[in-house]
């Protein structure tokens, strides 16, 4: 049998790097050509699902025989499958009908150029071929000391996220690699917290059918949930002894996962960096135990006097395809999804239409979106900088979703509310309580705020500088100070501001803090839309202008003047501490009349309320 070709994960990581370079933010992408036609729908879904990571609004493939095969595989009725094909052909949406389509812009990508890849650290588009890990300084020498974790210890290895666990080939490949490793007596390292969190219950059914569930469990990859887990920062607590060793030794610890995102601070507070990899590669790293391991060349173990490397346990394409064909069946999808959509009638007691708010709840609290900063007028005058930020600020920097630590602002608040540390849970689970979620604003310990200068250097962490006092403090204390002063705020940032998850609190948190505008070199589409929905004005510097060329250090005050219309040129007035006044043209990133209307209303909720009141009045 031939060695397996790269997985869909390898392909999508290469595409993510390429499409980021091609600057497709906000674009609608359609993949076509011989390579696209050859991809299974599972592979296509893997590519499309990572559209936010390369910045596109949508990533689409046309309807063809691969689509029909997938509909049959996933248990759709023959009548429905025939209707899909008939409709697509009749309306000109079938792939063959689109051969003469003219596109505004055409990019070319050669599938044969794809090799085994990872991405990291810190960004999904930071691709690195596994063959180049040593040359890139990721793999390297480390000391094996009995009873100690090594430098670069992989403390989390997780097969997770909808992108990769909705693709049967990826998961079956992981199971087969685990089986091969078990046969050779290879073991997961004891400090690795491993898990399998499929996006669908069908995964468990076809792993059972293939006899691979027990093989994965033997290496620690048992099913922990059918949901977002590690990819969204919810891997759960580490073993206390492992956590303490990381703290005591200030150990460089890492995570390897088959998720979409590996932004700084996202995966776990004690994983200093994270890497994205295919499911079978995740299993291999659980055996290796450190990111310093050269996964293509180093020895995973010795069996019967023979050195075992990755190539010795990686399954072939033929075997993966044969197991998928034998084990993935339509009845598995019917078994899971037909009951899910079945209509049930409940005849229990009627529920009161109004929710009974509980004042001590840390999970659901009456929202403040008609009060405080959101109730006041946005003057866009005299704004002080809450943060001055570099490129590639993600929504995980703005509002992390992972575990809440005791020494964080949210942790201190929850402790005061009487919760023990083991019940703090994650920021994401408290999103219905603004008093907890607000404290997540810029709470990422990996944040680099250029205003937080200590001893002449920018200090990493959830920090900022209160002005005009010039005092560096924790971000939440600064926010509280400015809220008490009713001080309007602005954020200054570099390129690609707001990458990552669509996280609502990344926009809610800054607005509730009093941020009225954000001036950046560029915005990610989803986050920019969320800012508009919260009544925050996105402003984009003109090409060639940035916080660096303007020498912004956070001591200034800022005004925005001009008539707001879609994509109008406004003026950002910078008033420096020495009295100098600088006027900078910026683009108003209210891109449509609808966005302008939402912003002027104060946000999407306020706009909805206006529409509702007008409708009821008439």
Automatic annotation (TrEMBL):
Domain Aconitase A/isopropylmalate dehydratase small subunit swivel: where? 412-543
Determine the domain of life of the protein's source. Answer: Bacteria
Q: Name one Pfam family in it.
A: Aconitase
Name of the top EC class for this enzyme:
lyase
- What InterPro entries does this protein's entry cite? Acnase/IPM_dHydase_lsu_aba_1/3, Acoase/IPM_deHydtase_lsu_aba, Aconitase/3IPM_dehydase_swvl, Aconitase/IRP2, Aconitase_4Fe-4S_dom, AconitaseA/IPMdHydase_ssu_swvl
EC number(s) from the headed UniProt entry: 4.2.1.3
Q: Which residues form the Aconitase/3-isopropylmalate dehydratase large subunit alpha/beta/alpha domain?
A: 7-289
Keywords tagged on the record: Iron, Iron-sulfur, Metal-binding
Reaction(s) the record says it catalyses: citrate = D-threo-isocitrate
Q: Which cofactor does it need?
A: [4Fe-4S] cluster
Molecular function terms from GO: aconitate hydratase activity; iron-sulfur cluster binding; metal ion binding
Mind telling me which PANTHER family this protein's record contains?
Answer: ACONITASE/IRON-RESPONSIVE ELEMENT FAMILY MEMBER
Q: Which family does it belong to?
A: Belongs to the aconitase/IPM isomerase family.
This one is known as aconitate hydratase
């Amino acid at each position: 049998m031939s060695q397996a070709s790269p997985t869909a994960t390898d392909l999508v990581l290469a595409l993510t790097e390429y499409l980021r370079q091609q600057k497709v933010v906000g674009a609608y992408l359609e993949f076509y050509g011989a390579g696209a036609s050859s991809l299974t729908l599972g592979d296509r879904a893997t590519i499309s699902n990572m559209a936010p990571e390369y910045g596109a609004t949508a990533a689409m493939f046309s309807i063809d025989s691969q689509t029909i095969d997938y509909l049959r595989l996933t248990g759709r009725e023959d009548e429905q499958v025939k209707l899909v094909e008939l409709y697509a052909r009749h309306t000109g949406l079938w792939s063959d009908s689109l051969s003469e389509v003219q596109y505004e812009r055409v990019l070319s990508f050669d599938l044969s150029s794809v090799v085994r890849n990872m991405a990291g650290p810190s960004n999904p588009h930071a691709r690195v071929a596994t063959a180049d890990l040593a040359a890139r300084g990721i793999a390297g020498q480390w000391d094996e000391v009995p009873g100690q974790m090594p430098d670069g210890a992989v403390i989390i290895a997780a097969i997770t996220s909808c992108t990769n666990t909705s693709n049967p080939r990826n998961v079956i490949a992981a199971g087969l690699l685990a089986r091969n490793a078990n046969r050779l007596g290879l073991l997961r390292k004891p400090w690795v917290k491993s898990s399998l969190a499929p996006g669908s219950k069908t995964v468990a059914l076809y792993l059972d059918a293939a006899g691979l569930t027990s093989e994965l469990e033997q290496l620690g990859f048992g099913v922990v949930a059918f949901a977002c887990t590690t990819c969204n920062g919810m891997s759960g607590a580490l073993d206390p002894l492992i956590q303490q060793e990381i703290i005591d030794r200030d150990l460089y610890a890492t995570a390897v996962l088959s998720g979409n995102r590996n932004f700084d601070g996202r995966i776990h507070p004690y994983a200093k960096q994270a890497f994205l990899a295919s499911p079978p590669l995740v299993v291999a790293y659980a055996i290796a135990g450190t990111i310093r391991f050269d996964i293509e060349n180093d020895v995973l173990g010795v069996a019967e006097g023979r050195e075992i490397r990755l190539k010795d346990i990686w399954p072939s394409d033929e075997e993966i395809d044969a197991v998928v064909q034998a084990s993935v069946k339509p009845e598995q999808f019917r078994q899971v999804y037909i009951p899910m959509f079945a209509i049930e009638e409940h005849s229990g007691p009627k529920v009161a239409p109004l929710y009974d708010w509980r004042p001590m709840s840390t999970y659901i609290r009456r929202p403040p979106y008609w009060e405080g900063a959101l109730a006041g007028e946005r003057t866009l005058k005299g704004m002080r900088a809450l943060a001055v930020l570099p490129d590639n600020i993600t929504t995980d920097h703005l509002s992390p979703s992972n575990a809440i630590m005791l020494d964080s602002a949210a942790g201190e608040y929850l402790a005061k509310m009487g919760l023990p540390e083991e019940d703090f849970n994650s920021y994401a689970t408290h999103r219905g309580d603004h008093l907890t979620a607000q404290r997540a604003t810029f709470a990422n310990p990996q944040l680099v705020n250029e205003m937080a200068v200590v001893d002449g250097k920018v200090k990493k962490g959830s920090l900022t500088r209160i002005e005009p006092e010039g005092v560096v403090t924790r971000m939440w204390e600064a926010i509280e100070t400015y809220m008490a002063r009713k001080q309007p705020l602005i954020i200054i940032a570099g390129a690609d501001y707001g990458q990552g998850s669509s996280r609502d609190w990344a926009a809610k948190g800054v607005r509730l803090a009093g941020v009225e505008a954000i001036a950046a070199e560029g915005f990610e589409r989803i986050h920019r839309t969320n800012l508009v929905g919260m009544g925050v004005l996105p402003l984009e510097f003109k090409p060639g202008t940035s916080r660096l060329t303007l020498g912004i250090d956070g001591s200034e005050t800022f005004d925005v003047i001009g008539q707001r219309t879609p994509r109008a040129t406004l003026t950002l007035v910078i008033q420096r501490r020495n009295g100098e006044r600088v006027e900078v043209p910026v683009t108003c990133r209210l891109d449509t009349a609808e966005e302008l209307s939402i912003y002027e209303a104060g946000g999407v909720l306020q706009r909805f309320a206006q529409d509702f009141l007008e409708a009821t009045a008439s």
